[in-house]
Each structure stands twice: as structure tokens, then as C-alpha cells.
Amino acid sequence: MGRILPGGAKGPGLFFTVPCLDMIRKVDLRTVTFDVPPQEVLTKDSVTVAVDAVVYYRIYNPVVAITNVEDADRSTRLLAATTLRNVLGTKNLSDILSERDSISGMMQTMLDEATDPWGVKVERVEVKDVRLPVQLQRAMAAEAEAAREARAKVIAARGEQKASQALKEAADVINESPFAIQLRYLQTLSTISAEKNSTIIFPLPVDMLTQFMHRKPSSTSISAIHSSTASAVELGGSGEGGGNNSSDSSHGRASASERQGLGVPPPARRFQVGGASSTPPSATNEAFAV
Question: Taking 60 as the threshold, does the pLDDT of residue 259 lie above it?
Fold first, then answer.
């Protein structure tokens, strides 16, 4: 009720008022800040969160702020709380957590348009805190921990792959250069000798094993072994088989020498005692008759 005096709002200076007829209303034109209380909001994906914010505004037209609205400050506070609930209700939880800047800009635009007829200019809106339920916090923490473990395993697997590739390349280099493995062998022996150990075991040189594995017997030696094994040597008491026995024995000794050169043990010989043949108690390269 009432009317504004001619000339509108007065600036700084000395003024005269008539008691009981004139009333003075002071309007602060500075930027005002207030906190929006935490609002319980149900998000679009049905998650209940508590969100609070802070609003910065100023009155740019004091005459309109006095005549068009009863209390511009209180009206702006209530409108900010309802706008916060309306905006967050259309967002998912992930959007609220990751898009705070866009939500703040949207709230600032909506509040500024709604308070413009009141002579109020909303300069800035900031979302302060988003509080989640305890169960949801635990679930999100477990999910984040699982994601970190998965990334760590991927990184470890990549490291092992690179290490295996490097070992393969090193093995190829050593395989191409026979002297490289000898140098590594000498370096290993030097390292072992520097340590104070009571017992040192030297491995068998690889080159000796390689030469032994690649050694092959000649074809003539193999045929001689087969022929000597196939012939049976029998020694009797009669004089008629004496010549044959001596020739067989000499042939058997030649075969035994060839076997000894190849590292093959000779077959067991038989002898006769009184017409009955038996295996000798110990392996020998000579045949005899009794």
C-alpha cells in the first residue's frame, strides 16, 4: 500500500521525511550470497541424493524490487531451492556427479529469467556437495576398486609381454653368435666367484653336449655290428670245429673292437662244458671250450 514519491529512488544525501506519512525502505545494491539448504532429490534413475548449492545475486532495480515483490531476498531463496530440485530430478546420478558445471549454468539461467521481473539479477550458481547413501557409496567404492585392479592387471600383462619379447630378441642374438653364450657363461662364473659361498657347482659346458649329441656312427661300423650280432659262436670239444671256432673268434674280436670304438657293449658269448652250453658268469670278449 502506498506510492512512490516523485523522482523515484533517492541516492545518497540529505532528505526530509514527514513522520507518520513517509516511510523509508533501504535496498542493498551489493551482491548478496546465500546457501541453499540440502535438498533430498530423487534422480531420474531412482537414486535419492542430498544436494546443496550457493547462489550469488544482486538487486539492479530497487523500485521494481520494492513494488513488484514483497520480499525479494526470501522469494529468491525459495525459488532457488525449488529450481535445484527440478533440475536434478531430470538428471541421472552419473550426470549429477560428472556435469556439475552444466547443472550450475542451467540453474543460473532459470533463476535469472524468473527473478528478472523482481529487479533481481542472478549472477552465479554453484552446486556445493552431493551426498549419497552409505550403501551406494560402498557399492561405488567396490566398483572403482575392481576397475583399478583390472587396469593394474592389464598394465602388468603388457609389461610381461614386452619383457618376453625382449628375452626372445636376446635369445635370437645369442643363438646367432656362439661366442655370446660363452661370454655370458664367463660373466656368470665371475659373479658366482665374487660371492662368499662354501660350495660352487659348475655346470657342464653346453658345447660338449652339443658335439656329443650331433655325433653319428659310420655306416660300415653299423653293418659290422649287425653281422657280428647275427652270427652265433659255438665252441665244441671236437677238432673239426676248431678252425671255424678260431675264425669265428677272430671275427668276434674284430667286431668287439669296432663296438668298443663306437662305445657299444659287446653281446654275451656262450661256451660249452661237456656238451652243454651256458652263459658265462661274467661278460668277456673271449670264447673258450673245455
Answer: no
